[in-house]
Structures are given as structure tokens and as C-alpha cells.
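>> Question from a student workshop board

For tomorrow's exercise we were told to take the sequence and the ligand below, predict the bound structure, and bring the output to class. My setup keeps failing. Could a helper post the expected result so I can at least see what it should look like? The ligand is alpha-D-ribofuranose.
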Amino acid sequence: MPTPRPKIVVVGSLNVDHTLRVPHIPAPGETLTSSSMLTCFGGKGANQAVAAARAGGAVSMIGCVGHDDFGSRYIEHLHSEGIDTTGLIRSAAPTGSAFIAVDDHGENSIIVNAGANHAITLDDIENQASLIRGAELLLLQLECPLPVVQRAAEIARAAGVQVILNPSPLSAEYLAARFAVDTLIVNEGEAAQITPGQNLREAMCRHLIITRGADTTLSITADRTEEIAPPQVTPIDTVGAGDTFTGAFAVASSEGCENPVHFANAAGALATLKPGAQPAIPTRQEIEAFASR
Ligand code: RIB
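>> Workshop helper replied:
Here is what the output should look like for this input. Compare the format with yours to find the bug.
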């Protein structure tokens, strides 16, 4: 009998990304000419949702887009990915957008215009509480208002739904008001600000995962600390790689996979090999083939 697909709800952001390829990240006051521009779907929340759907999850997205053409096209795009959009609302504010510079080494610099992502309210989350309670796992990041993210986590945890938070972009507001989740996924820079001593109590989670680029990923629980080596690749664009790691990890851990970090490392590495956020997110077949090399 086929394994049922894990039910995953994502509360988060949806952006249209405008990615400019540049020789280096511009310095203050510098004007650069880009060699190409790519406009594609992005936003940390929707990137996680697409990553989880392509990895095999049954995904629902809660968030907000504008009444503009980008908002309509975004909803159609999520449908084409098999993602449930009944939790999406629309706002008079424009659909969120991100302006991204990617240099010749694959490094990036991002400016986000939150737009409709900041129009989602606590009432909107209460209206979607049954969708959250019906999930196995809730995925969160920090591109929507913090009270909304925190309330979603509370609703989920009260219903026994696992909560995974990627606290990115890290904010002073989050550091001051941190709240309990099951799994916290951070990069090294974020870990240093949240819990320099890699302490679960300080991080307010049971499982702390620290991604470290090409270096080993740390997986820390009360019982043990593991280091899982990611596949070595030459990245061309790292935008969305962390979101892909998180979405893939969510599916693998919900399925009870023996080493979900290994699966997520493979997904994150693959996401660096193509330009753009969502165009680069791998399918489950691609992840499995890559992870078993
Ligand atoms: O994490 C990558 C994402 O950050 C991009 O897709 C962009 O929209 C910004 O939100």
C-alpha cells in the first residue's frame, strides 16, 4: 500500500523574485550592469511549500497576495504544483516582491518589499485554525508579522501538530519574543545570535538543526549531537536553498525517514545548481537519486 503523503501546512510569505546576475554584489553608491534578469516565484514561505510538495508532501499554504496580476498568477502557479490555496487571502497591498543580486560565486544580496505579506492578520490565522489543527506538521519562517507566526505556532502545538520554524530573516523582534517550537532550523549566523552555546532551552526547541553551507549540518537533540555531511557541489545560485532544505526535511521527518537531514542536505544542495528560487527546487525523484549517489 502506498504511504500516505504527510499533511503539511505552511504559514508564510509569497514573493515575486527579480533576480539580477552581477559580477559582484554592488557596494554603496556603485552602479552595476547585470548580465541577465530572471523573474520567478519566490518568498520563503512559498519556497518551503513548493519544496515540500515536490518532495512528496500534501501541502496547504496560508498567506496573503495582492489583488494584482502577480497575485492571480501566483495562485495559479501553486495550483499547478498541487498545493491547496484555500488558506490564501488577497489584499489591496501589492503582492510581495524581492530584488536579488546574485554574483559570479553564487552569493546573493536581497531586498524584500513585503507588500501583501504584511497584510495578514491574527483574525486571518484564527479563520484558518482548523486547517492548521488538521495538519501533521506546520512550517514557519519570519517574513510575515511575528504575532501571526507566533499564533500559528501556538494553535498547532496545542493540537499536537509538530512545528518547524526557520527564523529567517532573523529580527530583533523575534530574539526578544522567541516562542516554543519543536524544531528550529537555522544557519550558522542565526545560531550564533539565537544560542551561541547551541542550547536547546535557549533556542526554545527540542531539535536544533544548524546548516553550515558546505560544512557538516549539525542535528542537536537532548540525547545526541550528530554531524551530517552535505554533498559537495559548486553553487551557481544559493537563493532558496535554505527554504528547500526546510521543506524537504519536513516531508522526510513526517514520513519517519531514518536520516531526514541527509535527504534535506541533498535537496538543499540541488537547489543551488540552477538559477532562481522555485525553478531550482528539486523533485523527490531528483533528491533520492542524488542522495543515494
Ligand atoms: O529565501 C529566499 C527568498 O528570500 C527569496 O525567494 C526571496 O523572495 C526572499 O524572500
